[in-house]
Amino acid sequence: MRRFQLDPNEGGLGFQIAPMIDVVFVIMLFFMVMAGEVKVEKELNCQLPGQVDTAHEAAFVEEQVIQITATGDVSLNEEPYGKSDDKLLQNLRAALMRIKANCDAAKTPCQITIASEPKTKHGRVMDVADACSEVGINSLSFNVTEEE
């Protein structure tokens, strides 16, 4: 096999620019092709929860039920809070104030259901609704209980 020898008197090969241009074109072609493969992330319109005060345990208050009988007696969660002749319902108002304060402290909505019998007078239901409104409870639902 014959070896190729360079004559020191001949000019050197020098820096060849053609192979460098070929490499640049191949790299540019690679990036152009891969640019079409990039997936664009879509924006999700949601808010992440913020920080929660964990200094004390929050007691979640369930829905409270106020029952009104046909005679006008009022009870909260099956405990009596007003007789038929008690128009102002002071005991009920005091209990509702405590419930509202607990809900505000726990940062939970205060939900009250007023359940009355079918023959309950409408005015008595309005007395209970007024008591709820006076203490700041605005989330009320009304229900008519079945006669047993």
Spans with pLDDT under 50 lasting ≥5 residues? none
Number of helices: 3
**Based on DSSP secondary structure assignment, what is the total number of beta strands?**
5
Written as H for each helix and E for each strand, in order along the chain, the element string is: HEEEHEHE
Sheet of most strands: 5 strands, mixed
Q: Average pLDDT value? A: 81
Helix content: 25-40%
What percentage of the residues does DSSP assign to strands (E)? 15-25%
Bulk shape:
rod-shaped
CATH class label of the domain at 64-144: Alpha Beta
The third-level CATH topology of the domain at 64-144 is Nucleotidyltransferase, domain 5
What tags apply to this protein structure?
148 residues, alpha/beta, Nucleotidyltransferase, domain 5, five-stranded mixed sheet, rod-shaped
Structure write-up:
A hairpin with a 5-residue loop joins β1 (64-68) and β2 (74-76). The protein has a five-stranded mixed beta sheet, with helices on one face. α2 (90-106) packs across α3 (122-135). The protein is an alpha/beta fold and 148 residues long. The mean pLDDT is 81. It has helices at 17-35, 90-106, 122-135; strands at residues 64-68, 74-76, 79-82, 111-116, 139-144. The protein has a domain at 64-144: Nucleotidyltransferase, domain 5, CATH 3.30.420. It has three helices and five strands. The longest helix has 19 residues, at 17-35.
